[in-house]
Amino acid sequence: MVLQLFISLILLASLTLLITQGRRRRIWSVILLGGVAFISYLFIDNLNQSVGTNFIYQWLPHNILKAEFSISSTIGIQQMLVPLVLLLGGLVYLNTFFSDEHHSLHLNTLLILSLVGFILLLSSHDFLQLMFASCIFSLISFYLPDLMLSKKSIMLFNFLAEMSMFMALAIVYGKIDSVNLVDLHKFVNNGWHKDLVTFLLIFAIGCKCGLFLLNGHYFNLKYVSINRIADIIIFTSPLSGLILLAKLRPLFDASEFSSYVIPYWCGLSIIINLGISLFNNDLRIKLISTSLSLYSCASMIIYNDSLKLYSLIPIVLISLFLVILFFIVIENSAQPETTVFRLGGLWRSNKLDFSLAIVLVISLSSWLLQYPTNLITKIFIAFFIVSIFMIVKMVYWGTSAKEGTANIGLLYSLPIVCICLFLIYYLKSWTNIDFYKLNLVSLALFIFIPHKIFIKIGTSSIWRNDVLTKFYEILIVYPLKFLGRILWLAFDVVVIERSIIGSISMVTSSIVSGLHKLQEVRWINFLLGLILGLILLTAYLGAYVYE
Amino acid sequence: MSNPFAILSLIICIPFFGMLFVLTAKEDETSPNCNSSNVAIFAVIANLIMIWRVFMLIDEKQLKLQLFEKFNWLEVPEINLVFAVDNLSLLMILAIHLVILMGIIFIRSKSEPQKSLMVFSLLFLSMSTGLFVAADIFSFFIFFEAMLLPLFMLMGMYGGLKKTERLGGFFIYNLIGVLILFIGILLIYKYYGSLTLDKSSKILWKKNYGWLIWSCLAFGFISRIPIWPFHYWISSATSKVHNPLVFIASSVLPLSGIYGLLRFWPKYIPIDISQYFVWVYVIGTVTMLFISLIGFIHRNSQYKIFSFITVYYVMYLLGIFSQDKLILLNIGYALFSFLIVFGALEVLSAYIYQQEQNINSGSEGFLCRAKRLSLVYSFLTFAAVGFPISAMFTNNFLILSQLLSSNIQMGVILMLACIIASAALISEMFRLKTDTKECKLGKSEDLSVGKFIFMLFIVFMLLMSFVHPLWFVINE
Which residues from chain A sit within 8 angstroms of residue B372, using beta carbons? Predict the structure, then answer.
């Protein structure tokens, strides 16, 4: 069934690429939404029909490199594809109805291709399909933002991630002479340069998942629309990073330092991202950092047990979708303002949005809590929900700086409410003690903690400076440019142009002028020629006599 | 396999005859330069059809030379000229024809005189074809040197400013390389006779000045490759040229050095010789890093493309020195898509430069209104940087894997150089896509439909090369 889904999605994407953007773009988007819904229904309806079947095409059957193109229909993959397919429908719905996009059809096509990429990535059994699928997300991440600044940074980091992974897998292949993922343990046992391979893979995963210090490209997405942010955050590189981490997990055991670096790095990323989500004044930054904190937590869980990928992905996806809905509601209330310290008290003019936001947060907490967790994850969930509650307080409480905009509308609110109520009822969260504890504590903090502390810290200059970009520019870009300039001046100009070429031309011109002078009719030139001839003759005779 | 129709001689002669037809082509007032361009395009397409025919005649499962043609050149001394092909040489010939065709199509509409450009381009194409078809040492040497003449003329006519200095460097470096290679060829003839290329392994290391022969051959070939200190003449000759056809021709020249090394590479190298290869590795990696850094800081898009070409040529050179037979084969296959990618990038860059001159504005933001051009340019840039959309991805994976296995420090620096050169291309693409007032004013001129369709064909070829990257490797 996965193969049929794969082919259907490719056909649908191809058809939409043929349609040009025009006045009827919304109609085409609705038709596309219908197509996605139909395909999703067929897939979910026939879910258990072809479990365990694999479609395999011998792409490269040569001894020099054996690689296959495969699409698998295991239970785990189907388990992951169900929320992905539903989420595709949800994002297409948001792009069609919740945005003022002129290119919604284009966006939706990219999302469909993204799902195709996820099918390839999940089904990959070898390096080549893995890297091919990973590059699909890099290319989609390039086309999704519509501003050059965002495109540049996201492309750069994705490119560096792909190159790191490429290099690491090239080293692995050089040792084990196989591209199959099942043979990775051979490298762990007998490999070489294990630290380098692990370092490269950690770097690649860090770029993809947006871990601390490697997340600057995601924060540059604040300049694009919230729909595009949602599409990138939920449906492209960050999620692919989690899957890559699970697929390449055995390689991380090759080196000892990964067991120290990764958990602490993920933990640090969680803390910092949650901090940014609390303290930064920009709504879009809050959205991005909130999402990245979830990915950091997911990375830590998958690192500890890669098999949890299959159960974790649906939780992460639905949580992110609820977060996106939450921020769409917030942004609708706040627009056109995106800076939090200029907001406040909007609950009076946006009662429906305020209620929606509260309902969304409660359903988010119930969704997150239904996953059996350890203490650290529970603490993370608690802080996560609290930070979301704080955002509600910052936007809706206090006194307003301006009049609020219109509510989100009953037509669009109703589906959201239905989703939330369905989740809370389906998960039976009201029977869970933790659910009550968490929401009561958050509500208490909501009421008693003054949110203005966060706003005040958020207005300090550190948040206005793009520290990471400057860090990379000072540490990497400027030294490279300086080194390039020095090498060009020192070697090309001084050594080669002036020394070697200059000396050769000087010697040549000296010889030519010498020969030219010999041609002049002067008695001394005849004498010089005579002497040269005598020297040559003497040398020849001497050599002859010597032999 | 027998070759009754001398088809290999035919594919050398067709561009040559095309050149003669171009010389006699009449230019009229209504469409200047179209006749010569049309004749040149026709000649190249005709030769492409013949090359396709040759592909059908050879057995692609065989790795050895086939379709031998032998001509008695001299009786005393006895010298025969032998032509033959295999998969590798045919792929090289095909790639060169495609890039030259691209260059001709893209400069077709230019108003400046083009007859001489077409004449020497076709002559260059003919001589290059002869090089890849040559199967004995003398024919190889003849075509190895003969391809310099049309290139010299092209650079002399279209080399831009300071071409005199560059021609001087071009002449000196190639003269030295030619002389040393000639010494090697003469020594081979003296001790082994008129040897065919598939028997070059007969040249022994320790007898008959074998070490001198191999050194001369290596020096002669490496002098064509942009490795330090030979990179200088190539960079100064190539990077300032804005005519795409001349740039392509001068960038194809290092290919002759790589090809020579691939053909003559000995089956066995003594350990006391191979221990000196580390110097080649050191110089090669430093050159790569050096050129990639300069390309990164340089604002000229031409130099960025040149640095990309140089980095990959040196990488392939280092791959040859890794002495792995399958890697040697892979380098040959990688060169096919590499040539097409850089040729296509160059013609598009030259097109943008030309438009920049025509509308008298900067090229920043040029692509934001030229949708067709933007699509093709983006695809080619992604293919060039190594994304899995062309055969460069799989072939480079194998080559880099081997290089990283043989020497990790060299491999890491090599990867770093590749990344920097790729970053230079990506930054250039972003500069062209930046939103600027030119974008909003609609000053950019997009590709014509015909050129766009042609470029889509090139894109399709590259995608097909990814789907089927190791086309003719036998199943051992």
Answer: none
